[in-house]
Amino acid sequence: MAALRVFSRNIPYLRQQFSALLGNTSPSVKFICIVVIIGYVLSYSESVVNVLSVTPGFLLPPSFQLWSTFTFWFLEIHLWEVIIDIVTVGLCGKLIEPLWGQMEMMKFFFLTNIGVAFLTTFYYLVIYAWTQDTSLLFEIHVHGLAGYLAAVSVAVKQIMPDHLLIKTPLGKLTNRSLPLLILIAAIILWAVGALEGTYPCMWGSGTILSWVYLRFWQRHSSGTRGDMADNFSFDNFFPTVVQPVVRAVLGPPARCLARLGLCPSPPRRVTLALSPRGVTISMPGVEPHDMERRRQIALKALSERLSKTSEQTRQKNLSTKVNMDAVRKMQASHVIPQFPTETTEQKPPSVPETTLVDISAEPSTPTTKTS
Predict the structure, then answer these.
(1) Among 106, 217, 288, 319, which residue's CB has the most CB atoms within a 10 Å radius?
(2) Is this model's pTM higher than 0.90 or not?
């Protein structure tokens, strides 16, 4: 009851924050948020959960319930999942949609969710073939936006890979390492029983599918496809120490797929062009908007570093000035008095005035002389 009372008191504040988050967003973002809220209300019915969610055994023939791939994503059974979904979709509307456009964002949304449904089903089929446990096919219900949240983290990693999130004693946490860290955390929470097993499966599926789409298939305004930059390779999801091992394991399959024409190989040429402003260098996998974005990030980091350096210089100069003032005050308090020397010219003493009285004259008329 106490928790419910605290929540009811904070309802106006939460409403204000959500309205600020979803303000000035597209109708598609607001539609997704409203549908997720409706799905959470419907999740209190067990029969609705069984019908709307993806069941691996029913997605395959003979049932072949393909329509569940369009309904499972808005069905959440926990309130904290609903809050995370709304916040993530709102941030997508603020960050990704202005760069990609509304149609590209919705395309990314539906492709990711449909792919997560099939890939998660494939995971459970593999586990069933290994364990022969039929409950994995008919008692597992895949639902929620966990796969799309993973896809968003990959997209944010592509847009702002080196953006600092938090500083820890073990190092800095950036967008570059966010998808893998959340996957590891989800696996740990599932192992201790605090999270459903479908969550890490959906997160891993969304990470892989979104990376494949953004790496090879996404069409840009310049007419190119994908992002073949070196900092967006698959091994870049892992720590620096593990990256050589990942490249050694995934390198041969990637080269085979490139030879078969299933995925393009990264170009290894640099184009130089002369322009009125100077020499233009075109590197593989780097789009003009990415170059502008990275230039803005570099300029921001440079300005912050320069402002920090100027502040340190100002503090140093101020400290030096204070020290010099203190030294001058100490020297003034120990001044040696100056005494006159022998060569100093002596002024003659002043002669006082004297009065002389002539005694030969009459007493009534005295004569006064001044010498």
Answers:
(1) 106
(2) no
Is-contact 142 117, C-beta < 8 A? yes
Neighbours of 93 (CB within 10 A): 23
- For residue 168, give Cα distances in angstroms to 40, 179, 238: 35, 17, 18
Count how many residues are written for the chain: 371
- Residue written as token pair 């509304």: 102
317-345 pLDDT tens trace: 777 766 676 767 676 665 555 555 554 44
What is the C-alpha separation between 264 and 170, in angstroms, rounded?
37
* Contact status, residue 106 vs residue 151, Cβ threshold 8 Å: no
Extended beta strands in the chain, E state: 164-168, 171-174, 271-275, 278-282
Helix, strand, coil share of the chain (percent; to 5): 65, 5, 30
> Which residue, 334, 311, 312, 331, is CA-closest to 323?
331
Question: What DSSP assignment string belongs to 168-221?
Answer: ETTEEEEGGGHHHHHHHHHHHHHHTTSS-THHHHHHHHHHHHHHHIIIIIPBPT
